[in-house]
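anyone seen this seq b4? input:
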Amino acid sequence: MSYAPGGVPVMTTFSELLERARGRLAAGERRIIGVVGTPGAGKTTLVEAVIQALAATSDKTDGWLAHVPMDGFHLADVELERLGRRDRKGAPDTFDANGYATLLHRIHSTCGTGETVYAPAFDRDIEQPVAGTIPVLPHCELVLTEGNYLLLDDEDWGHVRAELDEVWFLDADDEVRRSRLVRRHIQFGKAPSHAEAWVAEVDEPNAKLIAASRDSADVLVSGVLLPNPPTSTPRSTPPSTPRSNLTNLPT
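predicted toks r here
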């Protein structure tokens, strides 16, 4: 492990990142780690790999880990149309930031109560949020949540940051992540020219906004650490791991 200016830890190996996650655990408590980065950085890929690796090396009961993506709090297209924001879907004000913060608070506050908390996911096949998709089970100890705006310095998103025990910022090569974004937009229905224009006109302004929040992170993670999926079969796969069509591409 190395340190960035200001003393922020920089994770230099995937095993160090796993140890960092394990070190956040505390008996009788539930922790929430946020993973933030620019569009296409690989946040979902990283979170899913961390969850798989932690599950594969633990004898804990299924459900002690959960993945709760920010993308479940996209406003539905019908509401974006009403607000006149559909042409920049993915910008900070096209999400229900306060709803997201409220859910994270509930995830914390229900620890030890025996209550299951249900979180929404984002179905990329229909490009819409789907309620009640992801269970955070009563015995869940660690929640990983990922999204673009976890460190954004405004009132609504500040409520989200207040609910996170720690935030990791995932760095990424700009050319690589832009290429990923174009491919993703094409895969989910945009013509190539439309995909390239969307990345340039919508995703990139958002990326600059997100990059400006980097210095507020607790941990920096290099994009070169994005691992291949573990070769071993996990002994426990969290029931909240998104289905294959729910935010399963690098974000």
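Helices lie at 14-23, 43-56, 77-83, 97-109, 155-162, 174-187, 192-211. The first strand starts at residue 2 and ends at 3. kinda curious what u guys think
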